[in-house]
Amino acid sequence: MNVTRTSTDVAIVGGGPAGLMLAHLLHRAGIGSVVIDIRTRREIETTHRAGILEQDSVRLLTESGVGDRVLRDGRRHAGIDLAFGGAGHRIDFPSLVGASVQLYPQTDVFTDLADARARDGGDVRFGVGDVSVADIVTDRPLMRFTDADGRPHEVGARVLVGCDGSRGICRSAVPEAERRQYFRAYPYAWFGILCQAPPSSEELIYNHSDRGFALISRRTESVQRMYFQCDPAENVTDWSDARIWEELQQRVRANGYTLKEGPIMSKTVLPFRSFVQETMRHGALVLAGDAAHTVPPTGAKGLNLALADVRVLAEQLELHLRHGDADALERYVERALQRVWKAQHFSYWMTTMLHRLPDASGFDVRRQVGELTSVATSRAASTYLAEGYTGWPS
Ligand code: PHB
Fold first, then answer.
1. pLDDT tens digits, residue range 12-59?
2. Which residue range(s) make up the domain with 311?
3. 56 and 118 together in one domain
């Protein structure tokens, strides 16, 4: 079959929130793009992800004209509960750092951006196959794919951006000799559920217990999101609703909470890892979001980091494409990596402070409680948590 050849300024592999936000920001700057994704729009919309937006992520959505729903349906969270040692301890963000976060699921951010691209006539192709990139160290890199009807396409661009997540093709399109991968695995995962029940708590509960970590989050007045630490090899079919509720209740009961129970609509085991690929550019290929870095979900940083990446990338791409600034893409990498490594530390710190290692000794658990006590009672330590959680200024 004949290959359809087209061209654009920026070819974007990956149509999740990072790829779509980048296309949206470029469109506002008068820069063209084509976005492709191997998943269908429905597949992306029905994959449950995290739900906390930093204040600058909310600002990016509202200032770029896609904030109507987050302002209407998002729920402001002015703090979290750190639960450990038999009680909850509130960390109050406004009094510590003058900021708060917004509970608004990632799938809704995706929907808002996909609607905006459709409204603005953006070129976004879902459900494509055979994706590859070529000629990445030339000034005319190519993105190839087969569309949902099986027709082959080749898009010539000035810059290629990999927003195709941790399992995408772009990070490994950088030759091995040109990249370094920093990686950390954890001996635990999260068992995530969505249930039909009223909220159990106004704010999120990050719960440390002898049986392991649990996180009580929320979605709407009648649907709630909760997680508990589990073995990475755990099988969801071994977990009846009754067994899940028993496990969750035991963990939070240790700190004086009781959960409101209801039918469980979704059960998934979520892997845990920390990952960074350096550098984030090779020739005309630039990486953003999970394609370049992954964090464990404890600090709710993944989506926020991806949005922070593409905000900076859109600025630097404009300098590069409009004003011929040859160093602009390198400055993107420098600016992005500073935040990435701070977020790597923050996510690692929250994770290791709250989760129980499978072979934890009495010392390990008591040391964690000591650390949590410091965080809850020292203004300096709780300010550090509040700064990281609500997001560092860029
Ligand atoms: C969620 O609501 O899905 C959520 C919230 C906070 C986290 C992770 C996930 O740290």
1. 999 999 999 999 999 999 999 999 999 999 999 999 888 899 999 999
2. 4-77+102-182+274-349
3. yes
